[in-house]
Amino acid sequence: MMQKIVVNNNYKTTQTEIKSIIENFNLIDDYIAKGTRNSIKKKRLESGRIVTIKSFKIPNIVNKFVYRFFRKSKAERSYEYAKELIRLGFLTPYPIAFVENKTAVSFRDSYYFCELVEADLTYRELVEIPTWENRNEILKQFTKFTFDLHEAGIEFLDHSPGNTLIKQVGENQYEFYLVDLNRMNFHDSMSFENRMKNFSRLTPQKEMIEIMGKEYAKLINKPEQEVIEVMWNKTQEFQYKFLTKQAQKKKLKALIGKK
């Protein structure tokens, strides 16, 4: 098996330390997230800093070949996109390293290391807890953050509730960190349609769309009603596709269960 380790020269760690962590990855039991596809663990480095390590599952038989020869791994893309976001002036947990394991003809697994960010909440809390303190103000500042991404030509394809960490840094002042970065596009400019579509995964709640739509209208200099209407239509389109897909999965599971 071949192993590729890339370490950020600006961070205090070594290939040896990163390699050792991966070799003992299964022994780390400090989980941030434990999923069937991917898992995120945290570990203290020799420097004393705490890092998060995201392990990406072994891809299916087709993608084993694709990732081996034609496409960058999710770990490498996460690492490169994090560096690009920082270069463009946006926040994301600091990229430290990525690791890939492969054979001569097949891709196996990959890992992305970044610094731990202790957030106060994610966007998800704003969806699930309508009484969250200062919720409207956070939504307005989040909208400005998203507008700034769009102005920089950044299309974050996984702009969903769990992928923005929010940190309070002062009275009525918040910072926003993007995570789960492996699906992003960088454009010279973004159309109004694409900008509105980028809000579609965030919330099914119309009152939240109205708050964000009003704020975005001011920033883009368009009529409030037009922005809210398009943003809400894009959200409904996504929700319909999402719920339809979930229903299909449920039917399939029921059929398999009957066999």
CATH level 1 class label of the largest domain: Mainly Alpha
Mean pLDDT: 94
Task: Write down the secondary-structure element order.
Answer: EHEEEHHEEEHHEEEEHHH
> Which sequence of strands runs across the widest sheet?
1-5-6-4-3-2
Shape: globular
Low-confidence stretches: none
DSSP, total strands = 11
Main β sheet profile: 6 strands, antiparallel
Structural class: alpha+beta
End-to-end separation: 39 Å
Q: How many domains comprise the coordinates?
A: 2
- As a whole number of angstroms, the C-alpha radius of gyration is 20 Å
β-sheet strand percentage: 15-25%
CATH topology value of the largest domain: Transferase(Phosphotransferase), domain 1
Protein name: Kdo domain containing protein
InterPro entries: Kinase-like_dom_sf (IPR011009)
